[in-house]
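User: Reviewer 2 asked us to show a designed sequence for the structure in our supplementary figure. I'm pasting the structure tokens here. Could you produce the per-position amino acids so we can include them in the response letter?
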């Protein structure tokens, strides 16, 4: 009962936190059936995130599922649902470009750096400032291959702490010019209200670099680098506005890819619903097999008791004929009796039609499955023909 389950969960949270204000009905919602499946798939594929296509979401999803497995708090249905959600998320990443474009300023900086240097390994990064944005941009560059980071700033204590935490190199103020000449990428993000890098200074730096490209990223507001520096040959300057325009363009591209992802999710929901429906008939299938198997075993035991009296092939044929006839009569007894009893019932024709469909009585005799080679469908699993043709299902 979905409503009772929701009420029970609400009571638990209220009791656990001892606050009806903290956990009120207005703060909670739930999904059921196909909507619940869609929600789980969209969360795993990071379509439900503030940043669509966020790569960390699937990892967090897997960690949560692993924790649930470790505490044995999931069963057959949830295990199938979450494993399917992981495969759906992977399929979306394979078949769409939803996670390829940078949608944060720090990742956009990495994307632009790649366009200039193609490969980021063996590049040297100089960070001017010790703020959070500069730190994040530097970390992303290192994650994508930049090998060496130098950091400089007015707050020497903060600079030393970052250098210690990330194995970077703290730069003394009197060594700053030399670092500019040797760096490949400079990230500038300080609280200064004036230009720290000006045209005359950077013209001299470019001359000393002898044609080696220099990528400047100005993340500061107000700006730390004179915009005219971009006119100097072999120096490429991007400020926060440039990066934001890249981010916005990429975000629009992700939104287009999200439409493709939603179509994949709709397809996979159908597969999941078919699997759930198969669970509804599984107990009946198991009981049917158990019932017929018990009849078979009983007839086998009777045949074994009589087989010793069979001397000829005709005797064995008669014995097998008697055993199989008895088995057929016992298997068909209950459905035949039911058909006769329901013959005068208003829905009697439906019973007859159902039996004809179950036993394929209207099929061509040559198309009926052979007794020994009959195709089997694993209990609780959707038939192969009903599954989506593509994906990791």
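Assistant: Here is a per-position design you can include in the supplement:
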């Amino acid at each position: 009962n979905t409503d009772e389950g929701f009420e029970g969960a609400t009571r638990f949270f209220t009791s656990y936190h001892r606050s009806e204000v903290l956990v009120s009905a207005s703060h909670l919602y739930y999904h059921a059936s196909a909507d619940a499946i869609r929600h789980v798939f969209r969360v795993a594929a990071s379509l439900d995130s503030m940043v669509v296509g966020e790569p960390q979401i699937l990892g967090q999803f897997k960690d949560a599922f692993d924790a649930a497995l470790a505490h044995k708090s999931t069963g057959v249905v949830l295990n199938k649902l979450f494993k399917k959600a992981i495969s759906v998320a992977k399929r979306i990443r394979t078949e769409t470009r939803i996670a390829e474009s940078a949608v944060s300023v720090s990742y956009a900086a990495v994307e632009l750096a790649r366009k200039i240097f193609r490969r980021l390994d063996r590049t040297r990064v100089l960070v001017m400032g010790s703020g959070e944005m500069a730190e994040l941009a530097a970390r992303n560059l290192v994650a994508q291959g930049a090998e060496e980071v130098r950091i400089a700033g007015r707050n020497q204590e903060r600079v030393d702490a970052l250098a210690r935490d990330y194995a970077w190199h703290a730069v003394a103020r009197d060594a700053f010019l030399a670092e500019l000449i040797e760096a490949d990428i400079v990230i500038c993000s300080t609280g200064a209200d004036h230009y720290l890098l000006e045209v005359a200074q950077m013209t001299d730096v470019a001359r000393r670099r002898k044609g080696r490209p220099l990528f400047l990223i100005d993340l500061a507001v107000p700006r730390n680098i004179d915009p005219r520096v971009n006119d100097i040959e072999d120096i490429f300057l991007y400020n926060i506005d440039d990066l934001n325009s890249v981010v916005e363009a990429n975000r629009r591209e992700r939104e287009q890819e999200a439409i493709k992802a939603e179509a994949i999710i709709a397809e996979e929901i159908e597969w999941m619903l078919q699997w759930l429906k198969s669970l509804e008939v599984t107990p009946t299938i198991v009981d049917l097999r158990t019932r017929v198997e018990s009849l078979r075993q009983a007839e086998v035991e009777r045949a074994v008791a009589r087989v010793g009296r069979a001397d000829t092939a005709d005797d064995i044929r008669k014995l097998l004929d008697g055993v199989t006839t008895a088995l057929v009569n016992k298997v068909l007894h209950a459905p035949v009796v039911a058909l006769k009893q329901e013959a005068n019932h208003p829905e009697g024709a439906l019973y007859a039609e159902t039996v004809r469909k179950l036993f394929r009585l209207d099929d061509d005799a040559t198309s009926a499955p052979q007794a020994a080679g009959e195709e089997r469908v694993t209990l609780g699993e959707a038939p192969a023909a009903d599954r989506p043709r593509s994906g990791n299902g």
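For the response letter, you might also mention the following. The radius of gyration is 35 Å. Confidence is low (pLDDT under 50) at residues 370-393.
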